[in-house]
Amino acid sequence: MSDLVIDVRGLGKRFGSRVVVDGLDLTVRRGEICGFLGANGSGKTTTIRMLCGLLRADQGSGTCLGRDVIRDSGLIRRDVGYMTQKFSFYEDLTVFENLDFVARIYEMPNRIKAVDAMLERIGLRDRRDQLAGELSGGWKQRLALAACVLHTPKLLLLDEPTAGVDVKARREFWDLIHDMAVDGLTVLVSTHYMDEAERCSRIVYLAQGRIVVQGTSDEVVDASGLVTFEATGGDPDRAARRLRQMAGVEAAAVFGHALHIAGTDRSALQAAIIQIADPELVWLEVRPRLEDAIIHMLAVAELAAAP
Ligand SMILES: Nc1ncnc2c1ncn2[C@@H]1O[C@H](COP(=O)(O)OP(=O)(O)OP(=O)(O)O)[C@@H](O)[C@H]1O
Ligand SMILES: [Mg+2]
After folding, report:
1. Which domain holds residue 85?
2. Which of 43, 74, 82, 235 could form a disulfide with 209 if both were Cys (CB 3.0 to 4.6 A apart)?
């Protein structure tokens, strides 16, 4: 098997007359944590389902784990762990019983030992005999992760695994994912959270079923060509309102006490800063945020696609 765990070209899917995934070329290397980003309805879940053979592509070809995505979907599924967007388990079974059930499905040898080792690994040992339905959101999500890595898959497909989970649980979940990647697991993970995107080794951003931009977080920021200035002091909300109206200011957003403005034309931004002439605002050029870069590139892509 080559170094590419996912290697597909021209992947396409339509539902009725609607094209949902449109000629997608995607490669993911072994051990990579690839972040799959895009607005609601951009085709992330559909792509993930085609990759693991749950949905048949209308177009395209390629391999997942060295096997043909169209012909060998059954074989691919065996080596993939898929955490669905609305993950589920048996609420009236305990944590242990849920995992034991999964282990039986995969006909794992030394089931009890494997389940207990997984509970230890994922920090669920103290909750072994608790009913799954009684777990908090963060622990439920850990149980779902445990259930999809129990059969030691080579590829993890995680579809918005941390939606609605608190910040500490999200941090711990991502620590676990990175820990598993060290052991050679490859991960494709969809998310709407930019802090999570920044923890991926690479980001792929989808819009209307097409890849708009991909690369490391730094590469995406650099490729956007965006320039950002930050101001502190004064009244950032009032300044933001004025700045949004000015030429060359693509975005003006307030983060706490700081005001960020972004655009691709540095001198236009500087002119806008001079024009609002607020002596209380202290300006500094800062590195654009990933979020700014993606919003910018999306706007450019939408303009290009407009009739
Ligand atoms: N089985 C289906 N039949 C018809 N339309 C579908 C089906 N599955 C998905 N779609 C449509 O395809 C589009 C892409 O859906 P998909 O679930 O792949 O998006 P997504 O990027 O995962 O979105 P989200 O961030 O909301 O999860 C949506 O407009 C959705 O309504
Ligand atoms: Mg989805």
Report:
1. 32-54+70-215
2. 43
